[in-house]
Specification:
Length: 123
């Protein structure tokens, strides 16, 4: 099961509208719940960008310090790469976003291979 948390009426309406669009085109029943956001607690340090941390070469190449939890938590690039490496995103999504990530060609090619592999990790 997955959940979409909302903070206000506008977010709730957007989530409900998106669900209706997906349900209209999907053959499966959507199990996602739409719930109000409550108190949020950060996961333990070792969970932060967990999938990305399983690729130490990549972490090193984007110049992140896995011991600096605040840096890992606040890095937009780390968040995006963690999602792509975990299998959440398509090659087309990655190529579209690539210019804003400012990655070297070597790093971009590594991520391309990971995304193209089709592996999906559930955390």
């Amino acid at each position: 099961m997955s959940v979409i948390f909302y903070h206000d009426a506008e977010q709730k309406e957007l989530a409900e509208r998106s669900m209706k669009i997906i349900e209209a085109t999907s053959k499966r029943t959507i199990q996602t719940k739409i719930l109000p956001a409550g108190i949020f607690y950060d996961a333990e340090d070792y969970h932060q960008k967990y999938i990305l941390q399983q690729h130490p070469w990549l972490v090193d190449k984007i110049d992140l310090d896995t011991m600096n939890v605040e840096e890992m938590n606040n890095s937009y690039v780390a968040a995006r790469l963690n999602g792509y490496i975990a299998g959440y995103g398509t090659p087309a999504n990655f190529e579209q976003e690539l210019p804003s990530l400012k990655l070297s060609e070597e790093v971009a090619n590594y991520v391309r291979r990971q995304v193209a592999s089709g592996r999906r990790y559930d955390c």
